[in-house]
Amino acid sequence: MKTILITGATSGFGLAIAKKFYAQGYNLILTGRRKERFAEIESILTELGEGKIHFLHFDVRNNEAVKQAVNQIPADLANSLSILVNNAGLALGRSTIDAGVTEDWDAMMDTNVKGLLYVSKAVIPLLQNNGGGQIVNIASIAGKEVYPGGNVYCASKHAVDALSRAMRIDLLKDNIAVSNIAPGAADTEFSLVRFKGDAQTAKDVYKGYTPLFAEDIADAVEFVCNRPRHVNIDDLLIMPRAQANATIFKKEEN
């Protein structure tokens, strides 16, 4: 039985990906900062499959915590690990650069870029020991374009886009495939986090059109990871039909 490790798996894309792969017979290694959600998530997942579920509680921004957690993965799961999904990430605020909050900048860069690097650095040796595998980096349309108020978030996701291409080159020798998946507007906790708990502002982001949902991205990850061995999906941009680019939408009047 194969094993998949998913960061940021307590909600949104990460949880949807976990459901998808657990139902297909994978063991799960799920990471998250919100330990209080683990029991509920486990109860939801156990209705979908019969594999093993192992939780790792750490913040991807803490390199030492990442290394310690990965080192504690049970041997049977470490030896069957074949997929890493770097999903943990966030956006904070929509300020212009001159009005930016430096604490928000730090959180975005530390999570979206350094966190991805820390986890990848710790997990890649396991994939190498297992003869190869797949890394999927969850990026964003913000890694392809910039938009007003997006500045540092866009910079962080541009870095993910670049790292995905660099990892593809560096890990080719190890039979490790690397894919970059870049969603457009998606209705998860993303906007609620970005607007720091302002539920109405977060809801208004998706008003007048049908956005992507977490399950759409889970489907994409499944597609990418289940190609024939000679095929790699390097880069996949996924948008709602109502979204043409980072800022242009077709919205219906209510």
**Which word captures the global form?**
globular
Main pleated-sheet profile: 7 strands, parallel
**Number of domains in the coordinates?**
1
Oligomer: single chain
Protein described:
By secondary structure, the protein is an alpha/beta fold. It has one domain: NAD(P)-binding Rossmann-like Domain (Rossmann fold). The protein is 41% helix and 15% strand. It contains nine helices and seven strands. Helix 1 crosses helix 9 and helix 3 packs parallel to helix 5. The longest helix is centred in the middle third of the chain and has 28 residues. The radius of gyration is 18 Å and the shape is globular. The model has no long low-confidence stretch (mean pLDDT 95).
Note the topology.
Layout: E1 3-6, H1 12-23, E2 27-32, H2 38-45, E3 53-57, H3 63-71, H4 75-78, E4 81-86, H5 102-129, E5 133-138, H6 151-170, E6 176-183, H7 190-194, H8 199-204, H9 214-225, E7 235-238
Parallel strand pairs: 1-2, 1-4, 2-3, 4-5, 5-6, 6-7
Helix pairs in contact: 1-9, 3-5, 5-6
What features would you highlight for this structure?
alpha/beta, globular, 15% strand, 9 helices, 7 strands, 254 residues, seven-stranded parallel beta sheet
